[in-house]
Amino acid sequence: MYLPDGSLRYSPSDLIAYLEGDFAAWMERRQAEQEAGRAEPVYTLAPDEDDADQGLVARRGEEHEAAVLAVLRARVGDCEEVPGGDQSVERTLAAMRSGRRLIYQGHLTAGAWHGYPDFLLRTDSPSQLGAWAYWPVDSKLARSAKPYFLIQLSAYAEFLQHTQGLRPRQLGFVFGNRLEQTFETERYFSFYRYLKEAFDRFQQTFDPNAVPDPALESGYGSWANAARRILVERDDLRLVARITISQIKRLRDAGVRTCADLIASGAVPRINGDVLDRLRRQVRLQVASRGKRPPEFEVLPPEEGKRAGLAALPPASTGDVYFDLEGFPLAENGLEYLFGAVTVRDGAPEFRDWWAHDAAHEKAAFESVVDWLHGRWKADPAMHIYHYASYEVNALRRLMGRYATRESEVDDLLRGEVFVDLLSITRAAVAIGTSGYSLKDIEVLFPAARKAGVTDAGSSMVEYQRWMDSGEPGDWQHSQILNAIRDYNREDCESTWRLASWLRDLQSNAGVRYLSLKASTEEPQGGRPEDPLAEALLAQAETEPDAERKRVTQLVGWLLNYHRREEKPMWWRYFDRLGASEEELFNDADCLAELVRTDKEPVRIKKSLEVEYRFDPEQDTKIQEGDKVYMLTGAEPVRNTVAAFDVDHGLLTMSFGPKKAIPDRCSLIPDEWVSSESLRNAVFRFAERWQRGDIPSVQAIDDLLFKRPPRLEDGPREALLADGAQLPRDLVSLVRQLDHTTLCIQGPPGSGKTYNAAAVIVTLSAGGARIGVSSNSHKAIVNLLDAVAVEALKQRRKVPIAKVGNDQGEVKSKDVVGALRPGIVVGGTAWVFARPDLEQQFDYLFVDEAGQVPLANAIAMGLAARTIVLIGDQMQLAQPAQGSHPGQSGLSCLHYLLEGHATVPPDRGVLLPITWRLHPDICQFISDTAYDGRLKPEAHTSRRRVILSPGSTRLRRGTGIHFEELRHEGNTQSSEEEADRIAEVLGDLDRSEIEVDGKRSLFDREKDLLIVAPYNAQVRCLRHRLGGKLRIASVDKFQGQEASVVIVSMCASSLEEAARGSAFLLSPNRLNVAISRAKCLAIVVASATLIRTRPRRVAELELLNLFCRLRFYARDLDAAATHARP
Length: 1126
Known about the structure:
Blueprint: H1 12-18, H2 22-35, H3 54-76, E1 79-81, H4 88-97, E2 102-104, E3 108-110, E4 113-115, E5 119-123, E6 133-139, H5 147-164, E7 170-174, E8 180-184, H6 189-204, H7 224-233, H8 245-253, H9 259-263, H10 273-289, E9 297-299, E10 321-327, E11 336-345, E12 348-355, H11 359-379, E13 385-387, H12 391-403, H13 407-415, E14 419-421, H14 422-429, E15 430-432, H15 439-442, H16 457-470, H17 480-510, H18 530-543, H19 547-559, H20 562-578, H21 582-586, E16 592-597, E17 603-605, E18 608-614, E19 628-632, E20 638-646, E21 651-656, E22 665-670, H22 677-691, H23 699-706, H24 729-737, E23 742-746, H25 753-766, E24 771-774, H26 778-795, E25 801-803, H27 816-819, E26 825-827, H28 830-833, E27 842-847, H29 855-862, E28 865-872, H30 893-898, E29 909-911, E30 914-915, H31 920-930, E31 936-937, E32 944-947, E33 960-966, H32 976-990, E34 993-996, E35 999-1002, H33 1005-1008, E36 1009-1012, H34 1016-1026, E37 1032-1033, E38 1043-1049, H35 1061-1065, H36 1068-1075, E39 1078-1087, H37 1098-1124
Parallel strand pairs: 1-2, 6-7, 10-13, 13-14, 23-28, 23-29, 24-26, 24-27, 25-26, 27-28, 30-31, 33-39, 36-37, 36-38, 38-39
Antiparallel strand pairs: 2-5, 3-4, 5-6, 7-8, 9-15, 10-11, 11-12, 16-18, 16-22, 17-18, 18-21, 19-20, 19-22, 20-21, 32-34, 34-35
């Protein structure tokens, strides 16, 4: 880091180390200062020991790099090898200026930064060098890209930009399996830029005497031992097992800073009393256990009649299995590479294992494991499969869906309560004075000497990566690394067995009886008619010579069981919640925990009593008035409906009939079941017809499945609509030309999707066509039907409209056939159009919000029409899929049809290319990041803005995207700091005016503003802080709405703490919808450390990059506005 002259020089490896957090980065710099003799006093903390096998990996890497060099040299011929030394930078520049085709081991610099890309390849792109430029390629032993690879090459891309005046458009790798792969620089460069700026600020403000607080960081890089030493020396709260950073923050705010403080503490604001009791008990045991082996522990007897803790532990059986998986989540789609199991014979454990290093072997191993487990259960129905934590069960659920195999067998094991999670039992059964509740942490209570070199799940992943990089054979008997992983897995299985035995001793001593859970009777068991047909189609696909027909045949086979797969997670969640603790339900946003009856007298409504309950309003929940729920009272769950819900005051009313018991305390879990029988039957009818070749009656669906361009009566077109087409006139003409086929109409934000669809429907109705309108929700259906009514009035045409449903004035589903007549427009859900009596009864079926409609549902309702028109935008809110599905069978119909395209190709469908909502400064970002740059603003959108008052303190512009960054810590689902900052922003807006086409009006909070938050807890926080009748909700509630100003609160302090993770919080679809509600100004309020995280997957890096791109876009607008001011 330090040069001999005392100056600092950084490399991409320094940047990668910085990803671990401020503490690790500070320690790295402090060590460099100390080694350079620049720091006093000498710091005694040292980094963790290096891996002894790093030298082997380095040698393998050098061999691979030499092999790649040979291949590239043979391919391009001309190569310059740059020797090391003081002249390496000048030699590299000379080779670039002379246009050498390949440069090996070049040395690039840019200010205080430098790096050595393995290879620079010449490309025919003009630059400051001449008619050519260079792009970086690295050789990597790994078999796929990792985030830090892409950050490293993004740095090389910037160094090249500094040298040649042109940033390379792509980054390249040659992996250990000789796979050559390129990546678009733009998808990663903004995060690199953000990280480098943060790193530069950190180095510029480095204080050798101010160590960052390790208690508030999630990773320590190679300084884990140093961090723990600091935490131990100050008796920090971070030492307490199962404590969260947000809880630490709230405890500190209440003056509780050490373990001793916590033991002596009283009530703490914003921490649930039961949670605080658990933390106090935990820290008391940990403090009492210091210096002791084994540690102190306390048995926690279960509540009477409640199946939890020791009451959920089954008796031992001879067929019992102790099960453990080793997974590698960094592989594409993840990989379960080792399935391990221990059985016990004559008191001694016996181990067996199944290995998989790719998808094909993973499928085979999964099938073999499930067959073995299912066979043991059939032979011994009293046996159980014990595992520690939910990973194993979740993996089996995922694999059965991904490969569409052994689904019945896994279902049998799940319904039969064969799997037993010993972690959940342990946490509810015993409090242990250890620093964590991992198997390795607690096995000191039932010791057995571990000998494996691999020590935990994290290191097993590291070791598996090392095996991938090493080139060792895939057989554990011939690979030292895999053999060590196998030993670790075996010891984990044996430790699980010893834990179960130890818990049974506690159960016996405490006199606790095992309580079994009744099996589900909701989901049908036994054979289903779709199964033989699915098997026949999948078998037929195996022998199909045509690749495309093979693909579709397989897809139809998979779609037959789509709805059953989609329902499975609902049943899994239901039974998981039945066994969950109140604390777990409290943290589950779909539930509502710890309801306590108030003193208010019940109110009689007819024969029922309405009873009021209170709950902690800090609890984040999706439950609302009218929802169907199950009440958990310790006995059998009871169905009920929420009669009234006051989220701000934490009050809820339930209605009880004369025969229902009224509990004093309960928790609510959602009743999510909706029968899919009619949809399954419709898909079955289609598949039967499709298999026997009866295509004419399902031609539109067939075109959808084969992804064919829409068939037109006057023949194919290169572009279905020409550039500059007149809408809706030309769209009406196009739809009339459709010939029993499927058309996609993609409508980006503000492009008039609903208006154009309504205009087409009215014109078709006037011609006598019978038209169906469907979507995923009644709200979307009604919205389009209302637009049809408005357009019919505008065109002075009578359009008969019928909405199918159970509300007053609506047509009953069974009466639709009798209501059909020329020109009618019928709106209903997929369940309506899947009815057998409606097959081919409609000329057109318009499916709105098609990006949220499953492909299987589109097929089910598509049977009702000769022509299908899919309307929507897959770049906005996506289909809320629940299950794991093979191939493309789990996609929405729009995602499926567009094959990963951001915008529909001109020959495949219609893109509505003009937004009538977004100001150009907003449209530019939305168009470039979501719509391939094809979305353009209508001219009048530039004539609208927010006119800020001269006294504006937070806002600097009245158009585009504004970014508000602030520091906060420990927030997961709500942030008072962001609520306060939004109040300041509203202060500026309250003094502003809205200008549209030269006309001004005072800013009106209720009319001109939407506030979007990702979590309901933040919605409540904002309502409490801001008051009034403001429109504040999650983004799901605002799709289709708009306002002059939109404020988006991200609320989480960091992604590590964010509920539902980065895929939810930084979802490109959700960000697109949130920002594109704004007509003039979108304001994003976020923690300065929200994206200060180490991405674990390339997909997560791309999410972070998009958010960074948004941030830089807003900053560039600020700079442009400042420059434009006189």
